Amino acid sequence: MKKLRILLADDHIVMRSGLRALLDRHPNLEVVGETENGRETVALAASLKPDVVVMDVGMPILNGIEATQTIVTQCPTIAVVILSMHADESYVMRALKAGARGYLLKDSAAADLIGAIQAISQGKSFFSPKVSRILAEDYVRVLKQKGAVDTYDLLTSREREILQLLAEGKANKEVATALNISPYTVETHRGHILQKLNLHNSAELVLYAVRKGIIS
Amino acid sequence: MAEKQLDVRVASPIQDRRRFGSRGALFAGFGTLLTLMAIMSIDSLHTLQSFEAHNTQIRQDYLYREHTLEQVRTGVYESGDIMSDYTMIESDPHTLERLRTEIQSIRNETTALLKECIQSLPVDKRESFQHLAAELERYWSSVDPIFALRPTEKKVLGNSVQRSDVLSRYAEVLAITKTISAVNDDELRETDRRIAETFAQFRRRLLMFAVISIGFGLILATTTIVYAGRLEKRVKDKYEESLQAQRELKKLSKRLVEAEERERSAISRELHDEVGQSLTALLIDVENLTEMSSEEGAFRQGLQKIKMLAENCVNEVRNMALLLRPSMLDDLGLVAALDWQAREVSKRTGMLVDTVDENVSDNLPEEYKTCVYRIVQEALNNCSKHAYAKNVRVVVLQEPNHLRVSIEDDGKGFDTSRVRGLGLVGMNERVSQLGGLLKVESDPARGTHLRVDLPLPNASADSGELSS
Fold this sequence. Notes:
The complex is a heterodimer. Chain A is an alpha/beta fold.
């Protein structure tokens, strides 16, 4: 099996060496480069074309989220997993909008990084369990405070099925194949789902799925 | 400090006294000037009035005397004519009788007129008229015998002594009237001269008054101008001083706010980047060790303990760093930071915080981001701590040249005219540093509405990347 080529981006050298030690122990993972700021990461990602970029958020010159946006726009094949100190919705949302497929908390990096890299390299999403938990708790709390109805109840079982597949990072076509329906039908369902849940784009849809614990 | 205050206290009564002194002098000066002018006008009016009355009286007296003299003269002339008629021409007894009556009435009339005139005159002026009256009386006495003559005797009369006596008396009376008339004229001229003199005197007095008034007024005006100028300068100096003090205070408070923000930011970064990251790296290393060691038991348990400790530390450090200054303000911009804050406050206090951020650019200048963030932070703090609000609505709106923030709660409100907490003062300070305006409306029935309007510099007016 071909080794997964990984680019490590973190301005903190101790952090980087720890992560590197972690990754080096896995035979099918290979760290091809290390960078310490956003701009360098963008440049190296463009020249090395790694499979996965492990990206820190708070980096000098260009922060990890903006770097992610640039990399994903330039080379959509590169999967980015964000490494962050924050389990906050703002960060998760921004990371998703920028095009990151995974969101990992640094304090659980050791346990989850390998799994996350493998998942996102296969086109799936990955979120630290703690992130999912916090987002879900926030969601429930706000619903309770506002006394609002959980919009998830409005979805049909087919829509829930499609929501999960889309949130996992599958394209319309893949969903269509998996459910044995036409891609147009999937698109129609997707529109209904966004409307019912009052969502506007795929990033929000993924975030919603994480909040609801549909994916993790 | 205390010494300085003492100095001021000692100096102030002297200054006060001086101020009262010059004010008193000014009052006295203006009072005198006004009195002078009032006296001058009253005197002028009075002089003119009395002069007018006097003049009229003199003219009337003159005319009256002239008229009397004229009457006397006419009477004498007429009597001459009548006498001629009587002696030369007439012989009809009736006509003669009528002439006699006429002459008698002329005599009575002139005598009465003269007498009346004499009585109206002052004693010292009576002499000439009395002389005239006596002469007239002699004249009439000389005339009387002629009318007593019988017709036959008349012809004999001819150029008799009697006739010549009458004629000489006649001439005498006329001469006296002329003399008196001349004297009268002289007197009038004399009066005119006296009036002119009085007038000249009056003019001199008026001139003197005017010169004194103008001179005094000039001195007073100069003094007033100098005094006012000095006052104005003092006020201006004081104003400049206070402006300077205000500017310095503003600069100082700006530096304070900046320094505080800088310090917080530095500490936050240090905590987050150095301590936090090191602890995280430590966690990863521990994890690595755990994976590498195959043995179970005490060693692994120890590692697990270290891991838990490190995790707790990471959380602590992260919370401290966020409290000092949220890294999302720098990493993700104002909108994300506000949303995070709203969620955190909701979580912590149970107060429902709703944020609406419209068109807010991610590339706002640093000081604007910080200002808005800190204001919302302070306001939310007030809402939960003092107002006991249940719902808060935070709206941030970016317009081409303005950034507007509105924070509305349904708490218990307060009296904006009396309550002015340090929090509000601090907010106001931050806002005014950016040239903005802070308005607070509060009503116990409806809660508090805080509005901030910040003018944006043109460079940052482009609302770059839109955020939901």
